[in-house]
């Protein structure tokens, strides 16, 4: 039988398992934090997972407002000290085990999920407002070269460029 996962912050507190839809995570009833595997963490970067947010809300609702937490959290799977990372664009610090998953303190999963969703929406909006690429027709380019407009005729008297030639060149 597999041993239950233990909260990285609350000594000797087993994590409860929650599942909803395609999402499975482990939460702590004392501190309200949640542990998710690397697969779910990668999915959260790609799209909002409402089931994960709902489960994290549930864990946060059962946790104490200000629990005493351990300073050096360890991976609930392998026991190795978790690596602290800051989510770019936020002030949220997460605890990560490269091999197994990520620990989100109370309300961090919700915050990070919503941050990435807002960023995705902004990227989609920016892409929709971006002008379409310019049309290139090889026949137009050949005609342009045949007219010789790619050559600017220099006026030898003042070593400048004739403005009429420039305007003619730009008008095509």
Q: What report would you give on this structure?
A:
The protein is elongated. 23% of the residues are buried. The strands form two sheets. The protein has a six-stranded antiparallel β-sheet with strand order 1-2-3-6-5-4. Strands 7-8 form a two-stranded antiparallel sheet. Strand 2 (23-27) and strand 3 (34-37) form a beta hairpin. The protein has two domains: 16-129, no CATH class; 138-171, no CATH class. It is built from five helices and eight strands, in the order E-E-E-H-H-E-E-E-H-H-E-E-H. It has 172 residues and is of the alpha+beta class. The protein has helices spanning 38-46, 50-62, 108-129, 138-147, 163-171; strands spanning 16-20, 23-27, 34-37, 83-86, 93-97, 101-104, 154-155, 160-161. It is 37% helix and 18% strand.
Features:
single chain, 172 residues, alpha+beta, 18% strand
Topology (SSEs and partners):
Blueprint: E1 16-20, E2 23-27, E3 34-37, H1 38-46, H2 50-62, E4 83-86, E5 93-97, E6 101-104, H3 108-129, H4 138-147, E7 154-155, E8 160-161, H5 163-171
Antiparallel strand pairs: 1-2, 2-3, 3-6, 4-5, 5-6, 7-8
Biggest sheet overview: 6 strands, antiparallel
Strand order of the largest sheet: 1-2-3-6-5-4
How far do the termini sit from each other? 78 Å
Query: What gyration radius follows from the Cα positions, in whole Å?
Result: 29 Å
What structural class should be given to the helix and strand makeup? alpha+beta
Low-confidence stretches: 152-156
Could you state the oligomeric state of the chains shown? Answer: single chain
Q: List the secondary-structure elements in sequence, H or E.
A: EEEHHEEEHHEEH
What's the total number of strands?
8
Please give the domain count: 2
Mean pLDDT: 78
**Count of helical regions:** 5
Task: Report helical residue fraction.
Answer: 25-40%
Please report which band the strand proportion falls in: under 5%, 5-15%, 15-25%, 25-35%, 35-45% or over 45%. Answer: 15-25%
Q: What is the 3D shape?
A: elongated
């Amino acid at each position: 039988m597999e041993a239950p996962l233990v909260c990285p912050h609350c000594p000797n507190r087993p994590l409860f398992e929650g599942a909803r839809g395609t999402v499975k995570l482990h939460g702590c009833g004392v501190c309200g934090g949640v542990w998710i595997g690397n697969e779910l963490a990668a999915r959260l970067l790609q799209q909002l997972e409402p089931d994960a947010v709902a489960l994290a809300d549930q864990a946060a609702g059962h946790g104490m407002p200000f629990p005493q937490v351990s300073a050096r959290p360890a991976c609930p799977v392998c026991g190795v000290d978790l690596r602290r990372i800051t989510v770019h664009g936020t002030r949220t610090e997460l605890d990560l085990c490269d091999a197994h998953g990520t620990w989100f303190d109370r309300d961090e999963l919700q915050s990070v999920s919503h941050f990435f969703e807002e960023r995705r929406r902004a990227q989609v909006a920016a892409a929709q407002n971006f002008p379409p690429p310019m049309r290139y027709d090889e026949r137009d380019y050949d005609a342009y070269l045949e007219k010789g407009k790619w050559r600017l005729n220099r006026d030898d008297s003042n070593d400048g460029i004739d403005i009429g030639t420039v305007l003619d060149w730009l008008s095509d």
